[in-house]
């Protein structure tokens, strides 16, 4: 579309129509545009100490980038606990007051459960954590879309006329 056509197209719309076109196209952009790949940076080394006691891990949420080298140091503070990482099929176990380490490359992306694999008491099945590899794209996209929706609702309830502060037509025509 050349500049004259674009100008005619814009002039033939009302401010409100333009606002919706703008909002809908931003929405599509947020939902489908590729995000920069943060994981391309050089692999990092993580040393993560996880304390295990009945019936929780501390921390219970881990996040690394794909390709990172991860060492988990499991430290049990009460009874024997284990840590089994789903999908990676890796396990480590630590005796009371002792530590045990597990080193691996985070070469599978996604969110994986880790769980205690040593029966340690009544609530043992609930002793779980989450290991995430990679950028959680949907989190960013979800938040951006939510903000856009609020913006859209505000725009439609307050009206969006040619003389408003948000005067897209005069901005474009200048
Ligand atoms: Cu356990």
Structure description:
- With 174 residues, the chain is an alpha+beta fold.
- The chain has 2 domains: 3-35 and 138-173, no CATH class; 39-134, Immunoglobulin-like (Sandwich).
- It has 4 helices and 9 strands.
- It has helices spanning 3-11, 15-32, 137-158, 168-173; strands at 45-53, 56-58, 61-64, 69-76, 81-85, 90-94, 99-105, 110-115, 128-133.
- It has a 5-stranded mixed β-sheet, with no helix packed on it.
- Strand 1 and strand 2 (56-58) form a beta hairpin.
- The protein is elongated and about 75 Å long.
- The chain starts with a helix and ends with a helix.
- The mean pLDDT is 84.
- Bound molecules: copper (II) ion.
- Residues 81, 116, 118, 120, 124, 127 line the site of copper (II) ion (CU).
Topology:
Elements: H1 3-11, H2 15-32, E1 45-53, E2 56-58, E3 61-64, E4 69-76, E5 81-85, E6 90-94, E7 99-105, E8 110-115, E9 128-133, H3 137-158, H4 168-173
Parallel strand pairs: 1-4, 3-9
Antiparallel strand pairs: 1-2, 4-7, 5-6, 5-8, 8-9
Helix pairs in contact: 2-3
Bound molecules: copper (II) ion.
Copper (II) ion binds next to loops.
């Amino acid at each position: 579309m050349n500049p004259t056509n674009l100008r005619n197209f814009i002039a033939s719309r009302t401010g409100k129509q333009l606002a919706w076109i703008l909002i809908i196209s931003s929405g599509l952009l947020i939902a489908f545009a590729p995000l920069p790949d943060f994981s391309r940076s050089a692999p990092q080394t993580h040393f993560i100490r996880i304390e295990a006691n009945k019936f929780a891990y501390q921390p219970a949420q881990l996040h690394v980038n794909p390709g990172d080298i991860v060492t988990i140091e499991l430290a049990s503070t009460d009874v024997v606990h284990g840590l089994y990482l789903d999908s990676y099929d890796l396990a480590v176990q630590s005796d009371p007051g002792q530590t045990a380490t597990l080193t691996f490359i985070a070469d599978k992306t996604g969110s994986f459960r880790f769980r205690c694999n040593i029966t340690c008491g009544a609530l043992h099945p609930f002793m779980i954590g989450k290991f995430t590899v990679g950028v959680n794209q949907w989190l960013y996209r979800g938040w951006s879309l939510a903000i856009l929706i609020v913006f859209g609702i505000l725009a439609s309830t307050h009206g969006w006329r040619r003389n408003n502060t948000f005067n897209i037509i005069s901005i474009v025509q200048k």
